[in-house]
Records
---
Amino acid sequence: MSHVSTPQHRDPEAPSRRRGGEDRDRSKRRHRGRNVLIALGVLVVALGGTGYWLYSDLNGNIQGVDIDKALGDDRPQKLPTSGQNVLILGSDSRAGANAGLNTGHVSGARSDTALVMHIPEGRTKAVGISIPRDTLVTRPECTKADGTTVASAKRVMFNSIYSQVGPACVVKTVEKMSGIRMDHYMEIDFAGFKGLVDAIGGVTVTTDKDIHDSSSGLDLPAGTHRLDGTQALQFVRTRHGIGDGSDLGRIGLQQQFMLALLSEVKKQDLLGSPTKTYKIADKLTAALTTDSDLASLTKLADFSRSLKGVDPSTMETLMLPVAYDKIDPNRVVPAEPQDSQLWKALRSDSKIPASAKKSPATGG
């Protein structure tokens, strides 16, 4: 992220103007140092000016998945504009460092949190669509990483696709649901999420009601709180302490926390604290998996810079409109016509109708 300045002739008799220019230069350097993309849980810290050993160390942390190779040509066409669509997953693997995070005792890994981030042309705003993990969907035919083919299946719970077939099949499923090509894929696991929040010094949230969830371990009275990594993880995973105890109730908390986290990182003076910058990047990249097009610090930095105009305070967050399943009331299905209206608006970069924002199943 180097910057080359053209030498300017200055009037030696104008020190006040010189100081003003230096202040502006420092402001610009601080701005470049905040080239950061963080999204729910998923989150990218772009570094510049470090030694090769540091770059290599962090670069080697990032895991990549070749989505294009796995899916081939059976995909929606790319947008003819500069808009972007990113599928962000939070993985709830119970293995390794995640085992001690009070995440339950289910074997394997699942996509506990799923968010489609739509960034229209111009990249100055964004909308996030949360897909409830209990949504019953039609899983398309997919190919596993070992080359074996898995047949299409109906009424499959969305969050099971990750463990059954892998991340590429999750991308393909979302593309079939929406008719929208996912330009990028990002995934972060629970342990990485906790470490990231601790590395930035916590995140502030405000709750209107007391939250007491013995399952997640969260005990939070109404009010404003500074959450550490463990509390943040409990916050985004709590479900029994709010609403009807379903996955739908906690989606609002996840979206609230995502915006708070984005705002927190945006205001951090990373350039002024190289130690903190490295600590954040190390925690993040060690837990981050992306599509192969983003699987390096350089590519992540370029993508981050392209989104610098997106302000978290103006980001809209919605839940995919769903209705309770008539056969199994513990599951939900995409609600029509709201579901079709929502995806159509995103495909055309048009305003989302108010009717498409209302979900028959609310989790309240």
---
Amino acid sequence: MDYISHHLDRNPTLDEVATAAALSSFHFHRIFKAVVGETIAGFTRRLRMERAARRLLLSPHSDVTRLALETGFSSSQNFAKAFRLHFAMTPSDYRQQQGLAQNSKIGNDPAALADYDALVMNPDSTIDGLLQRAEVVTLPSRRVAYMRRLGRYGQETCRQAHHDLLTLLARAGPVTPVGTLSLYWDIPDITDETRCRTDVCIELGADQTVGRRVATQTITAGPYAVCHVVARGDQLAAAWEAAFRWLVASELACDDRPCYEQYHATTDLARDHYVFDICIPLITR
């Protein structure tokens, strides 16, 4: 899954992905479908379409032909045909329809927008007690052990994955989110919630090794919008919406890499009290 995600522009073949997994194409195809619930071709095609949809929404004035070429299609005609098969509408219609839905979801209340403008002007202010401050920070790369789960984003998914990961790493202690990162690959407004990918991660030292059953990856370095959040469990979705409102108000652009949460020591599950950073990767201009 990671290999396909990192090579979408080249539209990798079954043989290429199977080679990366060190398995025969026949066996790998069967294993992949059993674990992921999709064929390799179907998974790759869906991710390409969803990435294109993301770029349509994040760059509302971009040229569709240019976007088609950037996402690995030979022409705007081929892109439009594939997009229509997946979303049952043209790229232009999708952009218009989803753009209206996003504006409605975010809200056009001048008072609400003024609150977010105030946050941009005053990083030390708060909004509804959620965003304590927001800033652009160059973050280092992070090598992590991780456990992936497919399905709806939420506390239960992350908590169980964290427990399973700690078990594989043979670490004792209470299951809390402190010191973990939750990596989110997909946008629920675009991807069916049953297909959304969550990676619960624990950062590793430079020379730290893990067993064969534990997957590792490196979260890339670079500029991120970092939003510092204090919230209850039922406010987590609202915190993410607030973070993206600040992003829009600041005229920053999110790129295709996954966003992640990083939890702090003052998080207290018993009190339903979460203190964490929302880290949104930015396009460098």
---
Amino acid sequence: MSDDQLTVSVLGTGIMGAAMARNIARAGHTVRAWNRSRDKAEPLTADGVRVTDTPAEAVADADVILTMLYDGPAALEVMRQAADGLRSGTAWLQSTTAGLDGLSDLADFATAHGLVLFDAPVLGTRQPAESGDLLVLAAGPTAYRDAVTPVLDAVGARTVWTGEDGASGSATRLKLVANSWVLATTSAAGEVLALSKALGVDPQHFFDAIAGGGLDLPYLRLKAGLVLEDRLTPAQFAVTTAAKDARLIVEAGRQHGIRLDVAEASEARLTRAAEQGHGEEDMAAAYFASFGKDTER
């Protein structure tokens, strides 16, 4: 065991959290994980992760706590359940996309329990999470960064520091900006394919037309490929989660006096796709929102 070995608690083992827990364990750290549905966390035991029955059990004597849950209220609820196991001075990597209001509530909780909060959302989906190549956006005190750097290095290829104060939300604000671009591109990809189908245009002719020029974009081709090749499951990033992120982006814009029409449209498309039964598929399935519920793939 290395002198730098940490005990890390991972709360939330969905698509992202499970991959992060595996990579932290593979880096030589002791990992305890909790998930609301324990059966989804159990496969982690094959990677040496200890799965616990309660959040409080997971965080007891942890050096670092990492939360990767659905949204801010979910993260706050789980941390409240963990309260009996918390100790003052523990570093908390809060990686849930919580939004501005959600992060404010989490920061208040951190202060009340003496936790050192790092606002640390990530950019990336299933594949980079599994390979440890996420981009971490982080804000937190320099004096405590050495305590969390081994964890950040295990889950990400790079960390971009945005500030000294995790409670200020500088990393969360950057995440919302970045996600607004991701969602806009995904929605545009879906509409390009839908319009191609409606007009009887071979999508490949479109890709040939833009190839190598300023309009070409690898991410566009990636998301379009998931639809065209029927590879929407397992999801890289699910429709329901993307819809939640779109809502947080729209809310953040409103709070600061701007209207985000494209983000509003993305939220509507993703919500409609979820209602059509595509909620657990990759967010590229927003493509189906252009058609009726029974549209063939």
---
Amino acid sequence: MTDTTAVRVDTPGSPATARLLSEAAGAIDAPDLVLAVSRNGVRTVHTGGSGEPGPVPRELLGYELGSASKPYAGLLLARLVAQGRVRYADRAADLLAPGLPVHPAVRRITLRHLLTHTSGLPGLPADFYPQAVPRWSTDPYGGYPADRVVRAFLRARPRRRPGTRWHYSNFAVSVLGHTLAAATGTPWEVLLHQQVLAPLRLDATRLRPGPEGAEAVGHRRDGTPVPALDTGGFTAAGAVRATPLDLLTFLEAHLEDRPGGPGLRDPTLGAALADVSRPLLRRGLRHAHTHTLTWFHHPSPYGPVLFHAGATLGQQAFLGFRPDTGLAVAATATRRVHRADTFVATAYGLLTETP
């Protein structure tokens, strides 16, 4: 069952965009699917899926973002830097455990290294896997709490010098979250709400499951429902949940420079939004891949695109925006990713191939 609606009734969405989203949805198999587009603030939202819709419209359900949570962590760090509370070059170990002896490579890891996946840390701590494998398909993270993440960092032995190689790491971004909480004396959940969610008016974005019936239910590939994700001590790397409409609001904030936009209401927020959108590093063969502090950064026929995808045990999310044309794309689906999955490719196509 599908539906395509213009969410802002004062500025109806484009019929052409509605048709485009409907066609794109046909390529994705999931019990619940939302494709949402904003063009200079005018929104068009397509909802559908193979499952029966519930009493709450799909675009108003909270979806697990998984790794698409990282742009929220990046914006938080950038704002704290803009406020002068921390610096990108601050060393994480000095903030987490001042004076504690650590490996020299760990001592050199900065906040920037943690966020940009250049810390030299592995994707996950080595001792994460023994406790996770027995429950890999149900709850791999819940048994690894925050204090264990911090201890794993402080006793780590990075194989590479920080800043020399890009290697995607949920471990590193999780350490960043705990480091910022220690540096500010504020729990991560409270800090994110104060610095990002409340200023951007993201009232339907949270780090924990909402009331029963308010959250989308993830599914395995065979359609079996899975429980809500517990990220354990890896909150900063993947715990954000949001409605597709809130996702558009988050993306639109990165595009706003008009009077009343969040950047103009608060200079530190404006500076942070600009900072996370600026190309910062290159990696890969011939340095072909560009990244900002927190977004993947690719060229397109219509200008650069910035994006991030994420997946959990039973859900997927995609966030992206095109600064030159005011286009933002948010997509969510309630089926676990698989090898032949078309979700990310379809959402990415909407961002890069749409005039």
